[in-house]
Write a structure and sequence with these properties.
Among the domains are: 7-117, no CATH class; 124-211, Orthogonal Bundle (Helix Hairpins). 52% of the residues lie in helices and 14% in strands. It is built from 20 helices and eleven strands.
Length: 559
Amino acid sequence: MSNCSPRLHYLAAFLVGLTGLGNILTAWLVHHPARYIWLKHFLPWVVLRGSWLFSVIAGTVQLFLSWSLGRRKILAWRIVVVMFFISTAANLLRGLHFGQAASNLGLLLLLLALKPRFTAASDPPSVRHGLAVFAGVTLFTYLYGLFGFYLLDRHFHQHFNLPEASAQTIAYLAWLATPELAHPTRLARWFMDSLAIIQVGGLFYGLYMVLRPVVYRRTVLVSERKKAASIVERYGHSSLVHLTLLPDKIYHFSLSQKSFVAYALVGNVAVVLGDPVGPEDDIPHLIEEFTTFCANNDWHPAFYQVLPDYLSVYQANGYNILKIGEEAVVDLHQFTLAGSERKSLRQTVNRMLRKGFSTHLLMPPLGEETLRELKEVSDHWLKMQKGGEKRFSLGWFDPAYIRACPVMVVRDDRGRVQAFANIIPEYRRNEGTIDLMRRREGESGPMDLLFVALIEHFREHGFDSFNLGLCPLAGVGGHPAASLQERAVYFFYRHFNQLYGFKGLRRFKEKYGPRWEPRYLVYPHPLMLPRIAMAVVTANAGGSLMSYVRAWREKRRLA
């Protein structure tokens, strides 16, 4: 198979749209009176008029569904194939348009040959809803037209009884002109326009619902969460892997059941958190399987914050790679507060200790009073950030979640909690990491004291490194060889820093002398990048962009 052959369905979709437009234009603009007069000797007027109508309908449906064919929708393929049979016959009946009929037939044969490529499903409940809309709108428009023509007959300068009003309704909805409707009043024209709007609006809404991507409704089973936790215990090795077990994730397991991806569905974008989790030799198979699974559901897959480990596998499956930031990782064997490089940090820590601040490690399960203290600090932090809790690539303050974690806290000289961070495992990697990092409003010194205490804790327990988390957009696009996408990221990093504090976050973490490890966004096509980026932001906002919008407006006001 050639390299371009996988894209043949795009060509077919384009040709279907072009043919649909051609069917509409030729029905309206191309007439052969001699052929029409000859056909009148063999076919009744209703058939000739109906062939024109069906050419327009088939062309409209072909034009409308060409986009869905590009998405490989099997239901769109079935409808379009039927429309091509209809349009081929209609082109012959409305004036022996052999050229148009031949092009329709040729494209029909191409679609039949490409049938195996059209595998994307529609959402079953939406299909049923769409068909119900078709039936409901058809019945409603018929009754609306029936009583409209019956009650407004004087506005057509006619007298319609119910059977005649029914015939007029059917003829009008079939786009068949009748002499009785030749001289309507303004009210009658408004009524006919409203009848057409209801009919066309119902048709297109029904088609939209019928062709809607699959909407995930199934509840993740307890057994699936246990299976994912078992795989994480055996193979997890990243700062994000513990977050795949939080309840906002959906799971897709490999055919071998040895590995899984954890994702959130935002519209028709499946955003995966990090790389697949499982044995190394099973990961390439799972990436391919998940790609096919998404294609069959009319979803666009994306992998957020992946490591460099499997970039070649993603690229082999047709994905694009974009660096989106760097994680700061402190080498615990090298870190020290001594020396001129750590002078400022050392002075801050000593100042906090002189003021009576102290650090304490709280082991799970945490008590209710402790949770109330931490919740108070968390609420102060969220108020400072001018936004709500984030999700997906971060945990959130859920009492059940926090209660089960070790928590490092900083208390002031009165014993009040000023800052805290909960510790989460990385499983197979000998690296310490944390999730929530929150403090009260005021000086940032307690956070420095907190981080130094965490470093000492992890070092004492034999860890090799401490992961400080991601610095978004850091280290991206600031070099001449950067791609267009990377330069766009760099532009955002430079010009929106005042609102989002990207550089301040990096400066804070640089105090600890970390090494910087790249993290990437893996996405299917460059043209999809804006939609993928919006889906990632929405997933991190817990499914709603309003918290980001409110925070952005407030920070812009204060900037």
